[in-house]
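User: Structure tokens for this complex, please. No commentary.
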Amino acid sequence: SAVISQKPSRDICQRGTSLTIQCQVDSQVTMMFWYRQQPGQSLTLIATANQGSEATYESGFVIDKFPISRPNLTFSTLTVSNMSPEDSSIYLCSVDASGSSGNEQFFGPGTRLTVL
Amino acid sequence: AQSVSQHNHHVILSEAASLELGCNYSYGGTVNLFWYVQYPGQHLQLLLKYFSGDPLVKGIKGFEAEFIKSKFSFNLRKPSVQWSDTAEYFCAVIQTDSWGKLQFGAGTQVVVTP
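Assistant:
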């Protein structure tokens, strides 16, 4: 298993600003993922962040809006840039601790973002 | 388009009632299947998973799910619910060649009344 923490747990931000969310894992993992959960909706994968390579973004998400860093095997950041009220969501990171595809993912507690 | 469908968005039932939540997916290849639960104010956590073998899998807290390949379904069941089962339940699917791209259903909010 893996224990994941995220900072901040919640924030209220002004339109046009940026917020960087941190994700810390208690063990080294290859695959980390960032998800968005908009109000009343399910989780949507934003991107896959593997250490040593560029993040891979899903359709509808771009690096300029959601830049991701993955400096080592236990840490990643997601930045929500030039925010608008439509970016108000819960942002979650997850990890696949198995090292191979298709296994259980462990989720962080999420960062609840409100954009005014 | 590939998708994961959960049949009910909101379920209300009394304690001791039986629960069944439907989940269907549209992927044609080999998949791994999951049910996650999110209790109020808590992290998403895994209830159970199916990778291969016996299609009837048992998870935590008395939950079980049955994989029916011919129906592309992975329904969740619990014979007798408790008030503490009040939560949101998510079905999720990974195609085994998709490198961790977990696709979630819309979720079902379950409310158990005392």
